[in-house]
TrEMBL record:
Location of 4-aspartylphosphate modifications: D74
Name by which UniProt lists this protein: Response regulator transcription factor
One Pfam family it belongs to: Response_reg
GO annotation terms (biological process): regulation of DNA-templated transcription
UniProt keyword terms in alphabetical order: Cytoplasm, DNA-binding, Phosphoprotein, Transcription, Transcription regulation, Two-component regulatory system
GO MF: phosphorelay response regulator activity; transcription cis-regulatory region binding
Provenance organism: Xenophilus arseniciresistens
CDD domains, A to Z: REC_OmpR, trans_reg_C
Domain OmpR/PhoB-type: 154-254
Amino acid sequence: MSVAALASPTPLPDQPPVPAPARLRVLVVDDHADIREPLAHWLQRQDFDVATAADARQMRHLLRHQPFDVIVLDIMLPDEDGLSLCREVAATLGTPVILLTARATPPERVTGLEAGADDYVVKPFDPAELAARIRTVRRREARAPRNAGAPAPGSRVSFDGWLFDMQRRELRDPQGKLVLLSDMEHQLLCALVAHPHQVLTRDRLLDLMHGDDAGVFDRAVDTQISRLRRKLELDPRRPRLIKTARSNGYLFVAQVQALAS
């Protein structure tokens, strides 16, 4: 190759522009304008697309007209309890919810997580931490793995004589009796029946259950396993269906069969 060729390299063909990543759409629901509005402005400066609502009525109106990637929801609202709203979102939309509240004790935080929340932030909080949690919750939602051989979410399955309808959130024992499940018990059982005969660590269960507060959730997973065993097992102290994998997590050993809808 000549010196001239080196001095005048062939120009590279035009490359298509790389599209900018989509801005995360966040709905902030808080009745205190001195929290809601500054937080919205701060998040917008961090490249989020933000809408706000002061109460449950405004929140439902916005959700009817546009989708959101994450909802930041205050528990204490003037017209409705934020926990009931969280349960409604989890059951109908599945949009990740971060609860925003002044309640800081572990039992209160577990109550919020059991209502279907993906994370829990205590007031007063650092906006940078909230922004990081929003991104983390969205990443976890986007990467939630699917097992090709597992029952599809929302399907009906049977195991050990039990019938479980994930879409209707109905669990019936071998005698046909309806067994009530909390929101977290339902999420946990969905994760277990979708991954039978696999050791699921607590962290893996957190991912499958769309949880994010590791400190509280580690304890909550063990608590919910115990509660679920009391409902599924003849002798919860000697479980046959949900086994403990020492130092690893839990193993669902039942044969799971997908049923026609």
